[in-house]
Description:
The structure holds two protein chains of two kinds. By secondary structure, chain A is an all-alpha fold. Chain A has helices at about 5-15, 20-40, 45-65, 75-95, 115-120, 125-130, 135-145, 150-160, 165-170, 175-195, 195-200, 205-210. Chain A has a domain at about 1-100: RNA polymerase sigma factor, region 2, helix turn helix motif (Rna Polymerase Sigma Factor, Chain: A, Orthogonal Bundle), CATH 1.10.1740.10. Helix content of chain A is about 65%, strand content about 0%. In chain A, helix 2 packs antiparallel against helix 3, helix 4 crosses helix 9 and helix 7 packs antiparallel against helix 10. The relative contact order of chain A is 0.10. Chain B has helices spanning about 5-10, 10-15, 20-35, 35-55, 65-75, 85-95, 100-130, 130-140, 140-145, 170-175, 180-185, 185-195, 195-200, 205-215, 225-230, 245-270, 275-290, 295, 320-330, 330-345, 350-365. By secondary structure, chain B is an all-alpha fold. Chain B has four domains: about 1-55, no CATH class; about 65-85 and about 275-305; about 100-275, no CATH class; about 315-369, no CATH class. In chain B, helix 3 packs across helix 4. Chains A and B meet through helix 1, helix 2, helix 3, helix 6 and helix 7 of A and helix 2, helix 4, helix 5, helix 17 and helix 19 of B.
Amino acid sequence: MDGSRDDEQLLAAYRAGDVAAFEALLARYEKPIWSYLRRFVRHDEAAEDLLQEVFLRVVRDAQDAAAPGWKGQAKFSTWLYTIARNLCVDRSRREGIRRAASLDAASDDGDAPVSLHDRIPGTVRAADAVLADRQAAQRIDRAIAALPDDQREVFLMREVMELPFAEIATVVGASEPTVKSRMRYALEKLRSALADLAGEDGADTPESKGAG
Amino acid sequence: MAADCEPTRAQMLELIYGELRPEARAEVDAHVAGCAACRAEVKALESTRVLARRSLAGDQPPPRAHAAIMRAAAAARPAPAPAAAPVPKAAPREKPSAWAWLRGKWTLPTFATVGAVAVFVLASRIFLEPEKTYQRGREGLVPAEEVSAPHTVPPAAAPVPAPAEGGGAASAATVPEPPPSAKPAGASARKRRGAPAARADQPAMEAERAEAERGETGAELLAPPARRAAPPPAPEFAPAPPAAAGGQALDRADDEDRAAAPARNRSFAGAAPAPAPSPRAKAQAAKKAEAPDQETFAAPAASGAAAPPPRSAAARESPVARADRLFGQARWVEAAVAYRELLRDDPRNADAPRWRQRLTACEAAARAP
């Protein structure tokens, strides 16, 4: 991890030929962008292509100073997330798959071990398997995938990319109140979809909402 | 929901995402502390967030995509690869190589183009200013009249019996040898000194003409104008320009011009490699960028030299790696301690959000039954 240098310094280093700096940038952003992409397009192969495309744009931008890319006028992360978001939107328009099958549609019968969640590699997945049982994880995935696009993208930007609402508004091209409203709807939908799971922790129930 | 809950509910998102302005924070906190319903609301939303984040945390980018991106990044490294220059330098001396072929291929068209431009300039001088040309011919180009042809004998004509128009490379080779003695006797020397005052203000033009005259007679002459015309921006390649230069200076310049020719040829050749590898590298990069071949990218080892993979460096375990390992092993309490330490030691680290996120997950997991 190259935590000592900020994004802009890393990009400058890569422009000077330091490939390790690029890898540090990649390591910093590939996970949130991957998560955003696969949850947005709900298709892992397509998300993988888009992931490559996002970072290849960074490569191309670094190669060609005259390219219409990041020029330091905004945060690098905002620029990067905007690329990811635009690619998603373009793809959705092109493919017309905004209402495609959800992530785990194929495993609804419960016996197929092909859930995307199951295919997530690495130790964190193993950790997840301990954290929550498989059924619960699938339900959460489905609940996120079932959110309307505009709410899902705001939710993912906030939770995965950890962008503040004002920055999300910039990336999505909407006002901040609109973004917050979408976020609120998204949370409410997830909450009602996962109420019983959340209830394990002693969270509120719909009844308790009216008690104030 | 009671009416006095409304301001708090309106700021619930900001509250749970930590975006509440400090001045509003105290008020909201005070209300939540005293309102069970709002407390429950906050808890419910936070529980939902925890569940969702738990799911999202499992998303791991495919290693194949990582490798593909790194290969493309290494292949398209913006700075020119330093290894590219020495290779073509060493090659030409050994045997005819791809580089020699490339150079041969580019040299001739370049010289031909520059030669054509020189001929055009000369022609425009002659035909657009016929009177001047005629007058100069009367004043200084007597030998040219004697020869009665536009092919004025170059300086080399004196020492060596002029090989006329078919002289080719042989005459060029003999030129540098006798310049000092030959020059004064040579036609060009005479013609230059014939009218020094009249043309002192036009040395460049005269040099151009003299060289163009030399350049008229054939294949050999393709090279000098090319060398001359190509480098004008570079001072060392433009011997004639100084305005103060009289005839002798021009002669000296001529000599230097000829003497420097092989060196210049070399330097020209040496300069050529720079642009050559660049398009190739660009083409490769563009190819990769356009069609990231996942099959070929599947083997990440190829880019290993240029891109040290930090994630595989598990041998010397850093605090971050340790925390990640503990997290991966589901040792929640230890992982939480590790992440807490990381956050305490380096709270501004770019990775801090991730640590914080995992710390939250660890704590939740540790609390879970």
